Amino acid sequence: MDLGTLGYDAFMFYFEKRGLDKLRKKILSDVHGDVLELGPGTGVNLKYYDRNLINSLTYLDIQFKKSLEEKAKKTCPKIQMVEGDAQKLHFEDKSFDSVVFTLVFCSVENVVEGLNEVKRVLKDDGKIYFIEHVEPEGGWMKKLFNKANPSWKSFTGGCNLNRDTIMRFEDVGIDVTIVDKKFKNIFIGGIGQK
């Protein structure tokens, strides 16, 4: 395991143990068919997938963590690792039954473009399974997140604290059902479809 993997997992440990793991379990247990996961990072979602429901798994990321493929093959032997950008998916229209992303669109430069690509590669009866962190709804936390965002974005390589990703789903015509919210509604998990 490389230092970046250790650092990210250590940073997320508190959030995972305080409810994010339960949110992942609620959202990801029904992922099925031909699956595309955007930005798999350290592979944290793997343990929440039911391997009996998955025909194939495609990981797409700008750069992969070391040893991720070996880890993923234990859950899904039919895995494909593709380097690429969520804003320009090199897959045929209607290729996937399930598209998964967790804590990804905070870092995608053009969220609408990325979500339009997700919609394009999703089968008509397919589903999007997501967890994203979003701008706080108001008060001192919203002010703090907005003030901290430029420094945070620079430090984390592009993560934005103040995105309203749920509104962007609506902008591209994806219907969303919110399954749950955590940490004063900063983390939002749900399921989307065309």
What's this entry about, in short?
The chain has 194 residues and is an alpha/beta fold. The protein has helices at 3-28, 68-75, 111-121, 139-156, 165-171, and strands at 33-38, 54-61, 79-83, 96-102, 122-133, 175-182, 187-193. The protein has a 7-stranded mixed sheet with strand order 3-2-1-4-5-7-6, sandwiched between helices.
Given this structure, which CATH class is correct?
A: Alpha Beta
* CA gyration radius, whole angstroms: 16 Å
What is the residue-averaged pLDDT? 88
Low-pLDDT stretches are 1-6
Instruction: State the CATH architecture.
Output: 3-Layer(aba) Sandwich
Global morphology: globular
**How many helical stretches?**
5
Report the helical percentage: 25-40%
Looking at CATH, the homologous superfamily is Vaccinia Virus protein VP39
**Widest sheet: strand order?**
3-2-1-4-5-7-6
User: Tell me about the biggest sheet?
Assistant: 7 strands, mixed
Number of domains: 1
**Number of beta-strand segments:** 7
Order of helices and strands: HEEHEEHEHHEE
Beta-strand residue fraction:
25-35%
What do we call the CATH topology? Rossmann fold
Distance between the termini: 38 Å
Could you say which structural class the secondary elements and strand pairing correspond to?
Answer: alpha/beta
Set down the secondary structure blueprint.
Layout: H1 3-28, E1 33-38, E2 54-61, H2 68-75, E3 79-83, E4 96-102, H3 111-121, E5 122-133, H4 139-156, H5 165-171, E6 175-182, E7 187-193
Parallel strand pairs: 1-2, 1-4, 2-3, 4-5
Antiparallel strand pairs: 5-7, 6-7
Account of the 3D structure:
The protein is 36% helix and 27% strand. The chain has one domain (3-193): Vaccinia Virus protein VP39 (Rossmann fold), CATH 3.40.50.150. The radius of gyration is 16 Å and the shape is globular. The relative contact order is 0.16. It has five helices and seven strands, in the order H-E-E-H-E-E-H-E-H-H-E-E. It has 194 residues and is an alpha/beta fold.
